[in-house]
């Protein structure tokens, strides 16, 4: 006899107050470790009002805040969160405007404006990150364009994030189709080549997450 499986998504709606109560449960760990609240996604700034209100509340408790973002939102949304962000983990993906629009739906001008807004806010620590997605962000011309851009605006360090499959389960939990299942991981040599290129352009490159 065959087994029957019930497909369920694991989601729940929260108010700001409800999230703050959850965060407060771990307050002792944040204070002892120097950690804090990180908003991720998807793109957390699609819900900029919620993100701003939440970070404002947890900062009143003395808890640090961080966001992971691509910055692909209008400047009005960025301005909502700027006063409440301690650390921005900012992903730079595709620099060619047409390709960025076609592949990931991003407006490169918007991304650059957001990135520079965080950089120009003294209270925000910014970590530029480059997710290495085979066949997309890893193309030599794209790597050259990212290096040229960060050099142009005076950024001296980037974090390289090699592609992994860790997020596949999240798609299943959300009932969404995961299209990267057959995408191969980068080899150590491929990662090293990209790392070395940034270093050759006088940009410190830190590799994270390679198994």
From TrEMBL:
GO MF annotation terms: 4 iron, 4 sulfur cluster binding; catalytic activity; metal ion binding
Domain Radical SAM core: 1-202
UniProt keywords, alphabetically: 4Fe-4S, Iron, Iron-sulfur, Metal-binding, S-adenosyl-L-methionine
Cofactor: [4Fe-4S] cluster
InterPro entries assigned: Organic_radical-activating (IPR034457), rSAM (IPR007197), rSAM_sf (IPR058240)
Domain of life of the native organism: Bacteria
PANTHER family on file: PYRUVATE FORMATE-LYASE 2-ACTIVATING ENZYME, PYRUVATE FORMATE-LYASE-ACTIVATING ENZYME
Protein name: Radical SAM core domain-containing protein
Protein source organism: Xylocopilactobacillus apis
